[in-house]
Predict the structure.
Amino acid sequence: MEFQNLPDLASRALGGGVVACNDEFFAPADNLVTPEPPVFNPQTFGAKGQVYDGWETRRRREPGHDWAIVRLGAPGIIRGVVIDTSWFKGNYPPYASVDACEVDGYPSPAELLAPETDWVTVLERCALAGDTAQSFPVAIERRFTHVRLNIYPDGGVARLRVHGEVVPDPRLLGGGLPIDLAAVENGGRVVGCSNMFYGNPNNLLMPGLARTMGEGWETARRRDDGNDWVLVRLGVPGIVRVVELDTSHFKGNAPAEAMLTAVDATVSDVDDRSAWFGLLRRTRLQPDTRHRFFVPPSVGRATHVRLDVYPDGGMARLRLYGIPS
């Protein structure tokens, strides 16, 4: 489904976390938001039975159902959820539903569970299959900060993915202070790419430093006269002042050169190449290096930025520090 190309708002990589659950006897609910795919090693038994890479509750012997509340690392509009029961075959929940709410600040579990909290059902109770990643679209045009996964009556879920569009708190963007205009946590998003054979271009906008080459964007080897590129829609329109191109971990496969151009889509057509202006002229890069370049103060406001790499290769992170307009 198309919504799976959007960021996982609940991912631990964006700061998501499980803040409460009613039961996690066999496996901790924190596993729900682990960015990596679930794994399984047979015959790995602990004091409470087979060790699972997921959330698993005990067998319920009374009425009711189990639940876990997840704080979204990046609040936003939910476009779809993935409830992944991988490796749970005889112990998966037959049904599940998802609720969501928006609460300012840093609410405690007690505040989230209070009667006055406005929880909205974004996924009605639906049937699940075992050992399957099941996708469900969501069509509610509201910003949410937390979700609650309900399983009926009990069982195990490996991962919960909450894909959507990041909507940052505008109060955090004011004051004229510089921010990373392209960061996914500020709403930045890749909207076009020439090639993503080895690595997803959305990795460029993720928080923190890449730990390995696998956490960056990498293209296939080109055998023609062209070059690879990625198009980023800034989360917040603004004036770029500093560019960071990070080729960390890319040693024999970093691009030889790179160039950055930008456009203000509020006054020009993104498809009109004559409306684009330069942020960084074609510049030589070094492998395994964090490069920083200053942008001339005369450069105007941007809503989209295109990164061209020559001729191909990999990059860990792209940072576009500037002043939100």
